[in-house]
Amino acid sequence: MRLVAVSAGLSTPSSTRLLADRLAESVGDELAARGAVVSVEVVGLRALAGDIANHLVTGFPPPRLAAAIGAVTGADGLVVVTPVFTASYSGLFKSFFDVIDPDALAGMPVLAAATGGTARHSLVLEHAVRPLFAYLRTTVVPTAVYAASADWGSAGDEYADGLPARIRRAGGELAALMADRPTRVEPADDVTALEQQLADLRFD
């Protein structure tokens, strides 16, 4: 199975990338426990910023961006993580999904997550990120993971789970969706399909 994590973190090191890695690891562990063989790829949008801008202007993706788009659209499940900018997802995050065909992610299992400096922005996942992926007709897991600066290393309290528990729960939900998703059949090559049709012809 192919799991792809998309990180829109801009700094190095990045808490957004760290959260993407932790979530991908959790999903991978859950799938491995189910007996699945999993490959994990992380797509860092920071390195693709110029390519994304060029694609928006020209309509043609440079090779690195085309490879990233292919990885995302060919995945069996996605982890998507954005930093919070002005109470919403980042422009880089949105621009990347703007250059993907709107129908290419239909039915894709998605785990949505975000990072920010304060817990006040935690609802960004519900009022911005989740609607974006609903528009793309993906299947977003119930647990969205928001990590504020204070959440790292926190075990939570009697009213709320800590970040590690939320990561485990969300990872389990995405793994379950991926495991239950029917295996996709790649379309036959056009030339091969034509050859088969000709071979099936019978002449008297």
What does this molecule look like?
The chain has a single domain (2-200), classed as Rossmann fold (3-Layer(aba) Sandwich), CATH 3.40.50. Helix content is 44%, strand content 18%. The protein has 7 helices and 7 strands.
Give the overall shape, derived from the CA principal axes.
globular
CATH level-1 class: Alpha Beta
User: What is the CATH H-level superfamily?
Assistant: Flavodoxin domain
Q: What is the first-to-last residue Cα distance?
A: 47 Å
Query: Number of folding domains?
Result: 1
- The helix/strand class is alpha/beta
CATH architecture title: 3-Layer(aba) Sandwich
Largest sheet: 7 strands, mixed
What's this entry about, in short?
44% of the residues lie in helices and 18% in strands. The protein has helices spanning 15-33, 49-58, 63-73, 91-98, 124-135, 163-180, 190-200; strands at residues 2-7, 39-44, 77-85, 88-89, 109-116, 139-140, 145-148.
